[in-house]
Design a protein that fits this description.
With 263 residues, the chain is of the alpha/beta class. Helices cover 33% and strands 17% of the residues. It folds into two domains: 151 residues, TPP-binding domain (Rossmann fold), CATH 3.40.50; 80 residues, SIR2/SIRT2 'Small Domain' (2-Layer Sandwich), CATH 3.30.1600. The relative contact order is 0.22. The protein binds 2'-O-acetyl adenosine-5-diphosphoribose.
Length: 263
Amino acid sequence: MPLAPSSDPLSASPPARPVAASGEVQALRQRLAAACQIAVLTGAGMSAESGVPTFRDDSSGYWSQFNPQEMASEAGFRAHPQRVWNWYAHRRAVIARVEPNAGHLALARWSRTHEGRMSVITQNVDGLHQRAGSAGVLALHGELMRNRWLDRPRSCCDLQRVAPGEPPSCPVCGNLLRPAVVWFGEALPASVWQAAEQAAQGAEVLLVVGTSGAVYPAAGLAQIARRSGAHVVVINTQATELDAVASQCLTGSAARLLPALFD
Ligand code: OAD
């Protein structure tokens, strides 16, 4: 299934909701402690408190400044390779200078002390869950810090020997390097998607953290989990497109609520 927004990718975020009450947090904390399998689906809001911009937040989101079809599609890259490469270079510089936040760290600590009970599935390409110490992270949209070839690599294409440029290229055939992220219209890595579907189907609780739920197939994991009987919890600072699917919505930031639920 190709990566696609559910509606207008530029649509503004919905309004803020009242903050989660401590009783609600305590009850969910107990449910999580008792669950054999927990899945966590994260989006850009997970890394917002680390200093990484989101995509659809009103004035600070990337898509309020850039056109996703130009910056996150193969056609956009082929049309303006230098411009798109440099935008990803800028995003790489942003994530190189930030650190995992208290939310990433709480998930990583809990998964280490409760081995085999938590699957972390992320739409984020920033690697912050992995840097926090979560193992086996399912990175649905790829990894920003890695590159791959734009066209099918030939025998001359060697990632260790590239001609410098914006973007770098194969010195023999001119094949261009591109970031190893999933762009709109492209398929998610099949094995990662299958593992994510399985984790959603097998979860007793699915936490949907810091995502607008505007991009499929990732957002569909909430429906998959709910149909399989999971308690689906949306954790976000604002209303999302997945609130209607959720068993429960907790309003608050990822870096505040995840430590309260797991530490
Ligand atoms: P969005 O920018 O669409 O949504 C970010 C969500 O995080 C919003 O619902 C915010 O309300 C919420 N949020 C912001 N700060 C938060 C915080 N501190 N704690 C909790 N929630 C917070 O980002 P995604 O849903 O991740 O794909 O977007 C999905 C995909 O669309 C991305 O992977 C990207 C984008 O286009 C590609 O570029 C291919």
